[in-house]
Amino acid sequence: MHMTSSNLLHRGSAASTGVRNRIRVTGQALTGLATTLCLASAFAASPAGKPAHLTCDSMVDPLGIDSAQPLFAWQLTDSGFAARQTAYRVEVATKPTLLTAGNPDVWDSGRITSDKSFGVVYGGPELAASTRYYWRVEAWDKDGKPYPASDVSWWETGLLKETWKAKWIGYEDPEHRAVRKSGATWITNADGAPEGVPYNVTPTASRFSPLRTSEVTSLSR
Are residues 201 and 116 located together in one domain of the fold? Predict the structure, then answer.
């Protein structure tokens, strides 16, 4: 069969176009495969994190908590598919080192099968007043595998039921100090005096306020 040079050029051009198309398709397939492998590698290299954002009575490291049974809460940091908590364990101790050593000396809830991660009630012995307590939480994932334990957090109790006495303190200018120490009685002002009650008689209404000696003199009948 006789072929002209133009036929050869046409067939050669068509062949090279087909090769380029096959190369393009192969390149796209390889790119998609590489992307899939990268995503799979990223998920495999990102293990679930420990519980975080620990709060006690909705506060972080609070002072002066007067609740005898504070409420604990935390958040998971597992970004895996369908991640969820299936169990938890709350530990409370008087020292953070006891928690990291796995020896809570105040309360250990034990493993509780539950997905609850907020409003978890303290269930240990009675708390002492004005005392700092340390706590942490452990959790288990959807497959029953444990997450790493959380960092140690703490809260400090208030006075609770403790009997105490105190005096109000604050700034007091010399004039007010002199009135306080003079033994002056409480009287009402002219607009607030009950009908028929003299201004120089000490009433018991809660709206009364102390006045200067000059004001008391001007109000006397």
Answer: no
What is this structure's pTM? 0.56
Same domain membership, residue 173 and residue 88:
no
Position 37 in a domain: yes
Q: How many domains does the chain have?
A: 3
Of 174 and 140, more confident: 140
What is the tens place of the pLDDT at every residue in 24-52? 645 565 555 555 444 444 444 345 789 99
pLDDT in tens, 88-97: 999 999 999 9
Query: How far, CA to CA in Å, does 88 sit from each of 49, 50, 114, 123?
Result: 15, 12, 7, 14
CATH number of 144's domain: 2.60.40.10
If DSSP states are collapsed to H, E and C, what string results for 78-112? CCCCCCCCCEEEEEEECCHHHHHCCCCCCEECCCE
CA distance 59 to 54: 8
162 falls within a domain: no
Long-range contacts from 206-213, C-beta under 8 angstroms, 24+ separation: 210/179, 210/184, 210/186, 211/187, 212/175, 212/179, 213/179, 213/182, 213/184
Please give the residue range of the domain that contains residue 180: 167-221
Q: Where are the beta strands (DSSP E) in 7-151?
A: 49-56, 71-77, 87-93, 107-108, 112-113, 120-121, 132-140
CA distance 115 to 134: 23
- Do residues 78 and 123 share a domain? yes
Give dist(CA 3, CA 66) in Å, integer. 101
